[in-house]
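Quick note —
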Amino acid sequence: MSFTSTIPPITSRTNAVKVNLSPSKKRPISPDGAFSDSGPAPSSREIWQWTLTKAAIAPCFVKDVFDMKESGVRANDDYFWLGRVPCRTVQLVGVLVGVQAYEKRVIYYVDDGSAVIECAHKHQPPPSTPRKSNKPRSKYQPIASSSVVATPLEVALARPIAGVGTSVRIVGRVKTYKRTRQIEVDEIDRCLSVNDEPNHWRMVASLHRDHYSLPIPFVVPAAVALVATASVLPHAEEPQTPKRSNPLPNSSPFSTRTTSSPAKSIPHASPPRLRHPSRLHRQDLTANTFRIYLKHYMDHATPPRTTGLGDNLSDLRSESTDDEDGFPETPTKRIHHRQRGSRHRLSGEVVDSTPRPGKKISGSAYCHYTPKPYRCNSAVKDEDVRPGGFHGFTLSYLRRVPELAHLASRIVQAEGRRRAREERKAGKTKPADTKPKEKLKTKTKRLFVWAVVKLHEEGSIVLWDGPVRDVDMVHCGDMWKGGNDSVASRTGVSMLSCSSTAIGFESEDEDEGELSDPPVGEDAYIPLNAAYLANVVEAAIKSLTERSVTKTLRSFQRPPAPDGPTKDEITRYLKKSDERWARLGDWIVQETLELLKEEGRVWSVASDRWLLCSPEC
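Predicted structure written out below.
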């Protein structure tokens, strides 16, 4: 008998615990549990693309920049976590406590009360050239040695935009630099108000409470995620100050200035700038070109300076004390200018008088010419010098504009060359001329008259009975495209003096080249634009509307709501009301109506009809 007993196995139920030694690869876990398991989490690439947009710029404190946690992704998609929000670009407002300028960058040390951070602003340094020594080469110097010795390059330091103690607003990218954080500046501006820094504190505190520190996961906006890559480029590919490339010269003189960014629309764009008259090609020297340039000058000339009588007297006193002869200069007596100029030339000094278009001025005299300040004519009435008033152009004034006078001379000479070339090709024998040759000044005046008449016939300019521009205050503004005006003017003067004898014009004396005094009661013209025609069109709409209401009252009918005149009705009314508007075009009336609509003075009803706005509008 065996004392051995068999014990049946006891099955015990134990709860097995499954421990994951590594995180699941199907769903990436964001740092600090920023995303929960509910719903699909955005990938690191999507988050990085969103941080490139302008909506991802995070206003924060300097302390927040140091407390940000790294994303842990590769360097190309690097970003940081500001609480639950991914961040790559921040906005800081603080006081500059230190500035250090280098050749290619400026380091700003910004303190906002929470910490101090280093902000690096890169610059494009100007090209520096080595300085050459002017020592003459010795006669016995070996050929191998060079007489031009290059000195070390002059390092031009970048110029800071503000000094220590200035409040600034900085937008830039957060970077890890030497085991600390640094801001790579994209934009830096001075604070315009002392309240900018407290307002920034209040906004950041509100964002921390309502956005950065919320317990819910961050979700990339769908509309922004689709266009994130196309809207904003990485910082490395976007320079702060783009270089302007010089375009190839265009044969057409009527080139306009374009903006660098087509996405941004400027409401008040700068007027187009034509090429400088001295830089026009020979094929562009035609009468039609001169007509276009004359209209461009009348459209964009700067209004004359308007000063009071007291300023005028003080200017005259200062000129009388600074005059070299000790007497006030009288602009009406040109003999005094000529005598004084000849006296200076005999003494070897530079002429300081205003050059006339007909004079032949040497290059050195034009280089040292310094224009005098404007002088107000005391004969002008007070209502004529009101701010924003219109001033007409006379033929005498236009002929005294140096650029237009020089262009007219070039066109007359070019036309003479063309005719001489055609006669040589045709093989015509030119008979001996018994009549004297026509002077260049007479031909240029004829070109001015032709251009003014053509502009008046096409309706671009109209007669003007108001104040006119003074011929002693000719404006030579920066309205031409082609570099420095003085350089172009010197080039034009030399070209004019060199080519005047090549085509057979008579050499004119200096006194004969001066223009005559403007006649009394000379006709004046003004360019027809929307600003000048605005009040006229507004009065026409009012008159036509009242006329329509009067007809309705005479017919003993119930007066309906006024419908207003159309563009064609306004044009016909103006043409019949005054001979000045006989050549008025529909296009200028349409432009004027659009201008009045923008200013809130008229509004358009059905069927393209216009009514005046009430004072309550």
